[in-house]
Amino acid sequence: MTELVGREVRSRDGERIGELGNLLVSLETGRVQKAVIEVDTGLFGLVDEPLTVDASELTFSPLDETLTVDIAADEVTARVEQ
């Protein structure tokens, strides 16, 4: 799991939105429940805002070693701004 932290995360429409910041694991089941994405915001994406999503919303592509979250880029922006 630690190899995933820091990997690039893209929206479902292919736009880079940030990096995987952390994974939250259930102490009862030992399974990953949530993922924290550090979303690039601010001028030139220099500020990172955390966005927590269900782990089921993420997929990993071994071809380019990136993660994709099943959320459109504009929705990501709206969620972070809440």
TrEMBL record:
InterPro entries: PRC-brl_dom, PRC_barrel-like_sf
Pfam families recorded: PRC
Domain of life: Bacteria
Gene3D superfamilies: PRC-barrel domain
Signal sequence bounds: none
PRC-barrel domain ranges (all copies): 2-77
SUPFAM superfamilies per the UniProt record, alphabetical: PRC-barrel domain
Listed name of the protein: PRC-barrel domain-containing protein
